[in-house]
Amino acid sequence: MKHLYIGLLISMLSGWSYGAERIIVEPVSEKVYDSQIKIGGTVIPFKKITLTAQIAGQINYLAGEEGDRFSQGALLAAIDDAALLAKRKAAYAQWQRAHAAWQNAITLYNRELWAPRSKTAMPGMGFPSMFDNMFSRPMSDALNITDYDAARRADLISARQRIKEALAQMESARAQVEEIDVMLRYTRLTAPFNGVIVKKFIEVGDTVQPGQPVLEFAKSNHLSIEVNVPVSLMVALTRGAIVQASINHGATLPVRVAQIFPVADNKQHTVKVKFDIPLGVAAAPGMYAEVYLPNPQSQGLKFPVIPEKAIVKRGSLPSVYVVDPKTHQVYMKIVRLSQTSINGNRIVLSGLKRGEQIIINPPANIHSGMRYENGTLIDHQPEQKD
């Protein structure tokens, strides 16, 4: 009886299947190895601007730090406006003075229109004044010695001229007030769109000059990849085309050609191209990115391609486990791989051929001599070291 139990135990151990995970076996496929060319680029914001100071002054307000988000129209920075407010008060006082002069000129014009000075009684009293009004003026007018109508017209023209001068002074003062209002608007830097502060060039208390950078503001919800594409690869690129890319050596994702610059760099012979990244992708401005572009000079040479997760690295040589389609025996093959990875796959330069069945998800305890049956690995012999 004891020997019977030992025999059953040995039988169970020899037929033990490894791993609860179902083993996946797939045939090796072939692809054209030079159908795509990898070009490096940089993740950039969809829109980025540099807010600069338009007037000289001292910064007395900053809304936040790098990484803080703001809505369109939010105040980001402010320059001290005390001096400008004082100038505005002075300019407004000049406008009020000019306005008073304009009103006075209108009053004098109306007075000249309805009560001309040329018809005002001569100074004096008694008989001389009466004689002058009754005889001297009518006789002078009759003999064309004095033209009182011409004098009245001259007085009206002079009154109108004073109105125009006062009006011009009003417009000049108003223009000064409007100019100062524009300068006051320049003291407030607001967000032109929903975005985030990327970089600060100043701090509160710093003095800035016109044209000096204050903040770098970007629309970071929408990201792009900027790549300098060789002119030879531009044949296959059109606006709106979809290509594959990876960010920070991660998984590949589709990107869209958003903008192709119309002029090539005459030194590097490249064209700047921007690719839109899908929303929600984990990326940030400044990250390294790679774009896979069609190769118009591809020779069409095909090589076996295997998933990276099928590669087992034990020692310095990569290997894969192959399943014999007739005996279902598992054995190891050493392979030579390319350095590049495309869509999670590696090109096999030697060691495999198309159609061979390989284990896609080899467990840690896999070794040659196992048997593959119905998605499991069965060990019929003691474990060996490859």
Roughly what percent helix? 25-40%
Number of strands: 24
Mean pLDDT: 81
Query: What order do the SSEs take from the amino end to the carboxyl end, as H and E?
Result: HEEEEEEEHHHEEEEEEEEEEEEEEEEE
β-strand percent reads 35-45%
- How would the global form be characterised? rod-shaped
Number of domains: 4
Quick one: biggest sheet?
Answer: 6 strands, antiparallel, barrel
Structural class: alpha+beta
Radius of gyration: 45 Å
Tell me the span between the first and last alpha carbons.
Answer: 38 Å
Neighbour order of strands in the largest sheet: 4-11-14-13-12-15
Uncertain residue ranges = 1-19
Count of helical stretches: 4
Characterization of the model:
The chain has 386 residues and is α+β, with helices and mostly antiparallel strands. The chain has helices at 2-14, 82-114, 127-142, 148-186; strands spanning 17-18, 25-27, 29-32, 36-52, 57-62, 69-70, 75-79, 188-190, 195-200, 207-208, 213-230, 242-247, 252-260, 270-276, 288-294, 302-307, 312-314, 317-323, 330-334, 336-342, 345-350, 357-359, 371-373, 376-378. It has a 6-stranded antiparallel β-barrel with strand order 4-11-14-13-12-15. Strands 2, 17, 18, 19 and 22 form a 5-stranded antiparallel sheet that branches. Strands 3-16-21-20 form a 4-stranded antiparallel sheet, with no helix packed on it. Strand 12 and strand 13 (252-260) form a beta hairpin. The longest helix is centred in the middle third of the chain and has 39 residues, at 148-186. The radius of gyration is 45 Å and the shape is rod-shaped. The model is unreliable at 1-19 (pLDDT under 50).
